[in-house]
Amino acid sequence: MPAENQKYPGKQYRRVLLKLSGEVLAGQDKTGIDVAVVQSLARQILEIHRLGVELAIVIGGGNIFRGMQAASKGMDRVTADYMGMMATIINGLALQDFLEKEGLVTRVQTAIEVKSVAEPFIRRKTMRHLEKKRVVILSGGTGNPYFTTDTTAALRAIEISADVIFKATKVDGVYDKDPKQFPGAKRFQYLSFMDALQKQLKVMDTTAFTLCMDNHMPIQVFDVTEPGNLLKAVQGEQIGTLITSNEGAEYYE
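Given the sequence above, the corresponding structure tokens read:
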């Protein structure tokens, strides 16, 4: 279970689960891996590692292959989902390479075994790596079809007793409306899980969001493409939107 205190204004988090989408790695492109973006992410991760933060990363694969899209066009859903899991492993290995170029010690763990390039996910082993300040990249999804990497992030965060999930995206928080379509959309500073459900805000898929709500796992949504934001989030600065079990929502002015 995460720590009881769900917000740490001005206080550093101890253990973080960072959820990175495949789209973030693609940069301005819709597909592939943008080397400059991954280098920037690696340097941001190095900054927080120097603070002693224990970091696990769940990475998506949408920049390479989207199982649900392929299934919608006629591919067998189970096959498509396994292909998507393989895409997350490719991204995990790419991120590992850039992190190690920055001098970090890393481990890639997968939910489906690929012994020649990564360890299998074993919770106790993951915990030990974190205690030794190794950055653990968790790829391969949950190892099962029909689950998203959002669900993987929620599940793994609970399993490793993370303090928070950082849902690092290309957007700067959660809005009451789509800001691309509605220029007057308001961004939330804080949200409760119930508020987000009632307002039908799509923070994560329903399975992932319910897991977080039931286990009191806070979620912070912010723009990771802005240099320095990951460090600010780890240090407890209020950026983006923080979603907790606490009731009541606030807007940014």
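The chain has one domain: 15-251. Try to locate this feature in the token string yourself.
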